[in-house]
Amino acid sequence: MATQNISVALRAPASAPRAHRGYGKHSAPDQRPPRQDDFMLLSERERYIAGYVDRLPEGAAMDIKSLARNLPLYGQMAVGTALKALAVAGHLRRVLCRIEVDNQNRWVTRTFWSRTARDNEWWTTHLAAESDRGLQEAAVTPPAPDRVPCAPEEAAASDAPFSAPAEAAEPSTAARVPQQRISDPAQDGPSPAYLALARLGRTEPRLALSAADCQTLEALAAEWFARGVDAAYLTHALTAGLPARVDSPVGLVRRRLNDKLPPHLPTAPAAHGIPGRRLLVECTECGAPGPSEAILDGFCRPCRQAPREATAAGPAIERDIQVHMKALRDGLRLP
Fold first, then answer.
1. Same domain, 15 and 106
2. How many domains does the chain have?
């Protein structure tokens, strides 16, 4: 009777070790409630370890060292072997998942656990759904529509409480026509493009521009700023690799502003290097990652074929040993 109830003999500690962010135990959905006869079809060791793992909280550490540290009857080798058997029985899958931590993409290992034994088709469908959900969560929020920067007076007016409902009833044609703004240096100050051009001469004396030159080239430089670059990037692009002598600074700057114009970039950073499939299942034998449909019963194809190849090669190896031993015996015989 003690063997039959061994799955509930060891309770998970109240303060089970927690895994790092993204790692640890993740319970599968649609499981039946715990019962006394859970894991009865497993061997004694696997039933004991499965009962402990089943009672671990979400996010608990599931690495072999952490489990063996809290299982007094078995060491790391026994725990590792039991986890392989539980994967074959359909209770767990180890998965590599790509997450974003501190603005960096990292691969973490998650252990999906199911009290109810699942077949390969169920795990493939469930992990595909988890992969799609991860892609949706990692989707970049659509950028807000571009807004024309307003003057301080306009900003103050927009922040004021709405108290003139009659103004909102203006004709729609007037709302579609953008209001033209006249640049007033005394009010708005010079633009970032103008300031970057004006400071070129202090950074590189060979590119000293006059006030008229800055006004002439301001529209070209403003196009750079509209494409997401800053003054430091613009200055470096214009001053890098200058000839020893510059006869016409304004001509050289105009040529570089046109020839080195950077490409358009998306307003929101794209998720570079993130594959379409964000979940890769680990082989419980060799640890090689792969898609869930390639990891059957927790094993990749080479590990599934290895036992059969070893069995087929056994008689041949035995024959070779027998031939070798016969040759040694023949060599030891006296003439």
1. yes
2. 2
Kindly give the residue spans of alpha helices, DSSP state H, lying in the chain.
44-54, 64-69, 76-88, 120-137, 152-159, 172-176, 185-188, 192-198, 200-203, 211-226, 231-239, 249-259, 301-332
> Strands 104-113, 24-27: parallel, antiparallel or unpaired by DSSP?
parallel
Partnered with residue 111 across adjacent β-strands are: 25, 94
Task: Measure the CA–CA gap between 234 and 40, rounded to whole angstroms.
Answer: 71
Q: Which domain holds residue 216?
A: 189-267
How far is the CA of 215 from the CAs of 129, 191, 254, in angstroms?
57, 10, 12
In a shared domain, residues 22 and 71:
yes
Token pair listed for 180: 């033209």
pLDDT of residue 278: 60
For residues 202 and 222, state if they share a domain: yes
Average pLDDT on 266-285 reads: 59
DSSP codes joined into one string, 172-232? HHHHHSPPP----HHHH---HHHHHHHTHHHH-GGG---HHHHHHHHHHHHHHHHTT--HH
Q: pTM for the whole thing? A: 0.48
Cα 324 from Cα 328, distance rounded (Å): 6
Strand order through the sheet with 92-101:
24-27, 104-113, 92-101, 279-282, 289-290
The 3-state DSSP class for residue 106 equals strand
Predicted pLDDT at 236: 87
* In contact, 242 and 287? CB cutoff 8 Å: no
| pLDDT at residue 160 greater than cutoff 50 | no
One domain for residues 43 and 65: yes
Shared domain for 216 and 241, answered yes or no, is yes
Residue 32 is classified by DSSP as P
Shared domain check, 136 and 20? yes
Mean pLDDT comparison of 13-22, 140-149, 171-180, 199-208, highest-scoring range: 199-208
Q: Is residue 181 part of a domain?
A: no
Amino acid at 274: I
**Statement to judge: residues 285 and 260 lie in one domain:** no
Asked if the structure places residue 238 within a domain, the reply is yes
Give the pLDDT mean for 46-65.
Answer: 90
Identify which has the larger pLDDT, 270 or 315.
Answer: 315
